[in-house]
């Protein structure tokens, strides 16, 4: 026990001496050290961003799904939402699902095309009033998937007066505020322009989670969604949003729905995320993996080359120190600590640089048409930071292997003789 206790201070002293040796090597060449740190910072910032990109879309998409407040979706087929056939007898199906003990709420979603005929404040342009809007019909007695930012939500009592909520883009474009009016005409598949227009009163402005920056979305009751087209497509819904009971969970609720209606396609948020991660979002995961690998490789080469050049320029000095009694392990450890210091300083500097770069890149990518306004490509998660630190640690250790070998096998006498002769 006494022998172990006496060895511990000796090892600590050896580590401190190796650190001091590495520090002196760095400060003696400040220009090269700054170049190495800046190079690692640039490489590290790009590496950090690629790690954020690898799962950013998936995390952001999951957040959008969770914000809607529903964890199960029911469709007529496995086609993507709003592209396949509608659910027939939607009211009866909704009532049947609402009776299941595993479910807390069921919300019908009916989407109809409409056209603005007249608004409270017309924007400039002769064709402004020809704007098309997506009319979402929903049951106001079930908590909606949107978030009210001004005014109030649809009234949850039976009401014959036509009322609407609109998204923020439409409100800004037409100067709409709660209390304004909007004249809409349904754009119906089998009906002509003879369909009568309906004058709606705006009761609120809402944030719809899956709206793009240019989307024009309004929401009203189920009955008015059908009356826009004089009953065309009556009792057919694009989707049913289901909220499971917290003590039951989404998978159990989905199994209950499948048992009650095997003809319908049921998918949970987790299943939807897994599908998008495997298919639709796989491109970004693959490109981030390739760029991260290339970036890490160049960072490894940068540090390895700079350390090798530094060691080769100091071979005479290292040989003299070895001749004076400096151990091989201490010199080799000094090279290793030098790599760790350079990579550590550059890696820490890379974090704020990478964060700023990710904001800029995210703003560029989010301008792609049709993307939800709240969808982000770069999303921070602790897992990305841990993986970033692990990769930089591996790079710093790997970059020091060859310079350490040069120091370890350095022939002292031959090196000193060569230095004297030169």
Fill in the keyword field for this structure.
alpha+beta, 17% strand, two-stranded antiparallel sheet, six-stranded mixed barrel, 422 residues
In words, what does this structure look like?
The chain has 422 residues and is of the alpha+beta class. The protein folds into 2 domains: 15-64 and 280-421, no CATH class; 77-263, no CATH class. Helix content is 53%, strand content 17%. It is built from 13 helices and 12 strands. It has helices at 2-27, 30-67, 90-98, 168-174, 222-227, 250-260, 269-278, 282-313, 315-323, 328-365, 382-399, 401-408, 412-421, and strands spanning 72-75, 87-88, 103-119, 132-138, 147-151, 163-167, 181-186, 198-207, 217-221, 236-237, 239-244, 265-268. It has a 6-stranded mixed barrel. The longest helix has 38 residues, at 30-67. It is elongated. The protein starts with a helix and ends with a helix. Residues 1-8 and 124-128 have low confidence and may be disordered.
């Amino acid at each position: 026990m006494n022998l172990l206790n006496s060895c511990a201070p000796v090892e600590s002293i050896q580590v401190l001496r190796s650190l001091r040796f590495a520090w002196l090597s760095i400060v003696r060449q400040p220009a090269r050290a700054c170049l190495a740190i800046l190079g690692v910072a640039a490489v590290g910032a790009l590496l950090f961003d690629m790690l954020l990109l690898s799962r950013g879309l998936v995390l952001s998409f999951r957040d959008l799904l969770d914000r809607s407040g529903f964890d199960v979706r029911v469709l007529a087929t496995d086609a993507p939402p709003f592209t396949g056939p509608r659910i027939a007898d939607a009211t009866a199906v909704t009532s049947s699902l609402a009776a299941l003990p595993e479910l807390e709420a069921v919300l019908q979603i009916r989407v109809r095309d409409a056209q603005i005929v007249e608004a409270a404040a017309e924007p400039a342009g002769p064709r402004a009033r020809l704007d098309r809007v997506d009319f979402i019909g929903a049951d106001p007695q079930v908590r909606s998937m949107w978030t009210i930012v001004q005014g109030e939500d649809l009234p949850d009592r039976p009401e014959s007066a036509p009322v609407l909520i609109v998204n923020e883009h439409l409100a800004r474009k037409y100067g709409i505020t709660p209390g304004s009016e909007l004249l809409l005409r349904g754009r119906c598949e089998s009906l002509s322009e003879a369909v009568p227009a309906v004058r709606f009163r705006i009761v609120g402005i809402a944030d719809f989670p899956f709206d793009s920056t240019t989307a024009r979305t309004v929401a009203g009751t189920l009955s008015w969604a059908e009356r826009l087209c004089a009953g065309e497509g009556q009792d057919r819904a694009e989707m049913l949003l289901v909220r499971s009971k917290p003590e039951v969970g989404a998978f159990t609720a989905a199994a209950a729905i499948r048992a009650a209606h095997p003809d319908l396609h049921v998918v949970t948020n987790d299943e939807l995320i897994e599908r998008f991660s495997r298919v639709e979002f796989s491109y970004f995961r693959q490109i981030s993996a390739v760029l991260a690998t290339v970036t890490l490789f160049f960072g490894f080469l940068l540090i390895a080359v700079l350390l090798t050049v530094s060691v080769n320029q100091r071979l005479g000095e290292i040989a003299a120190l070895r001749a004076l009694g400096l151990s091989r392990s201490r010199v080799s450890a000094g090279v290793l600590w030098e790599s760790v210091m350079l990579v550590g300083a550059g890696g820490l500097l890379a974090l704020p640089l990478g964060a700023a770069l990710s904001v800029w890149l995210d703003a560029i990518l989010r301008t792609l048409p049709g993307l939800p306004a709240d969808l982000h490509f770069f999303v921070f998660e602790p897992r990305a930071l841990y993986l970033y630190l692990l990769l930089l640690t591996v790079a710093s250790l790997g970059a020091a292997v060859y310079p350490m070998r040069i120091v370890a096998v350095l022939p002292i006498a031959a090196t000193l003789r060569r230095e004297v002769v030169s």
